[in-house]
Amino acid sequence: MIRLFFVFCGFIFAVVGGISILAYLNLLTAGYEFSMYVHFILRSVEFYVFIVGILMIIGALVFPTKRKAKQKK
């Protein structure tokens, strides 16, 4: 159940960060160069929210649970 919670929270963080990163693409139409855009994105909080969300999803899906299988005698 806790893994599902981390997947949902990670998904929400990744969506919020990803939408913000895509919204900042409008800076390119305002005359910014791509290198300036990348520099701006790397310094914004939304980029780190996106990365944390992706890591939460991967962590919840990769790491095993601590439940032990019941052994039948």
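Above is the first protein from milestone M3; the second protein from the same milestone is given next.
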Amino acid sequence: MSFRNAWHREDSTVVCIACGEAVSRDDAREYDKHGDRWDRDEKEFEYFCKPCDRARSHSPRQGLEDRLVEAGAGTVDRATFLRRYCALSRTGDAPPENRRG
């Protein structure tokens, strides 16, 4: 048994964060929203099922998670989030309603 197999419980089930389907851990891919999947200390990973993992963009996402948080992902209504996210994407700054000064 390899170290990886000893570390993972092969009978575990995880939920895909894209489609919500429960799949075997062996049929899933780890997702680390911090972008450093090799630094495992005190991390809880999220998972994609293999079809959703293949469908998502694998482009570098440096700064993406910070931008999503700054725009209010999951905490504001869709229209507000999209307006803030677009403003951040164009300027790299905080959206007008979040600027201080």
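Note on the second protein: Confidence is low (pLDDT under 50) at residues 1-6.
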